[in-house]
Amino acid sequence: MSESALASVFGTSRTPIREALKQLEIEGLVKIIPRVGTFVTEPSWQEIVELSQVSEMLSALAARLVAQRGDDEVLAVLERNLSQSREAAEAQDVQRYVGLVREFHDVMVRGANNAKLLSHYQILMNQFPYTRLVFASLQQPDRLATSVDEHQAITRAIAARDVDAAELAMRSHSNQSRRALAASVLATSELSPADSTLKSLAQQ
Amino acid sequence: MSESALASVFGTSRTPIREALKQLEIEGLVKIIPRVGTFVTEPSWQEIVELSQVSEMLSALAARLVAQRGDDEVLAVLERNLSQSREAAEAQDVQRYVGLVREFHDVMVRGANNAKLLSHYQILMNQFPYTRLVFASLQQPDRLATSVDEHQAITRAIAARDVDAAELAMRSHSNQSRRALAASVLATSELSPADSTLKSLAQQ
DNA sequence: CCGCCAGAGCTTGCATGGTAGAAACGCTAG
DNA sequence: CTAGCGTTTCTACCATGCAAGCTCTGGCGG
């Protein structure tokens, strides 16, 4: 879709559209090819591996900072989310669980009280289809239950103000999720071209 | 300086200038206030703390990935940089050492072979006056020598393909640097308003 | 002397027209 | 039927003019 077309749709001129697209390009969501057009980018598996590696570190930092701050309010929200997640898991309500997972990480990153961390994390998250990937990873047997357990471990470490344990728990959780995702994708192999980079997901 | 003035300087129209400024705003280098003007942002101590926390994690990931890949070429560059750094440190050539430190981290992040990590790291680094801060941290007695030792520890861990050791060494280095910086700033107290956030630099 | 208000001079935001370049289509020649 | 070339049509790019809003200053009234 061209700038002019988007301008018509939004009832504005091309200039604000251009600026918005430019921003989206910087965030890695679209790719602008000069004199040709603007296209939404489908992240390759290589990119998904890269994104998951970076987001693991940022999540870990978030967990560490939340534990360090020890804000009771944040902790309360996390524990409420945890019990809701447990309900959803027992009811096998994957749809709802995916939403709660997103909220869990969102609360964590916001609770870290670090604006730079938040913005970089959000840019990362916008780049890969989070919901779809989490949904895929939850196709693994028992993943729902173990995922809840991992969230609980993180929350416990935070409640205990144990920064190292919080970070480790979060990183363990990221790794388990990544492995579950890789297993699901390899199993269904929906559109996987026997990509060697895919195995990097399962590695480590 | 206004858009029109910049346009005159660069001999172009306001449009490309606007786009460039917009990008710089997203990267956090300038702040655009609608109908008022565009201003370069001086990072507060709060922001420097935040930036250092995030960059510590990204550097740690870089070190881990470099160790994991075990690219001999990258390792060779690091070792060359290390010996040059030792020379500069022995000669008390702070100016040259600062440049080598920058190169060391640059090679590390590029050697990680992770495009997302690289771009986020660069955006972070552009936001705080790296050279000035490193220079300040090196004012601490013996910091030059210990800094070299820390770089050596990182390089050794990478040479041994020990991912955990590489990450730990890098994080330790980041923390030591941060502490040295805090000590220097508190000592000179050039423009520090007895800021409580400054102490967060020294913490942990 | 102090406070307030109006207006001029800035600023960025937005709309629009013309331009250069890339791609796709169709025609023509082999 | 196919390959190559020219033309048309699409795209993003850039320049420019106009509009809206903020700031600062000068003058006026209390």
Structure notes:
2 copies of one chain form a homodimer. By secondary structure, chain A is mainly alpha-helical. Chain A has helices at residues 3-10, 14-26, 45-69, 72-90, 94-111, 115-127, 130-137, 143-159, 163-188, 196-202; strands at 30-33, 37-40. In chain A, strands 1-2 form a two-stranded antiparallel sheet. In chain A, strand 1 (30-33) and strand 2 form a beta hairpin. The longest helix of chain A is centred in the last third of the chain and has 26 residues, at 163-188. The mean pLDDT of chain A is 92. At the A-B interface, helix 2, helix 3 and helix 6 of A face helix 2, helix 3 and helix 6 of B. Chain A binds a DNA duplex (30 and 30 nucleotides) through helix 1 and helix 2.
Give the key terms.
204 residues; mainly alpha; 4% strand; two-stranded antiparallel ribbon; 75% helix; globular; 10 helices; homodimer; 2 strands; DNA-binding
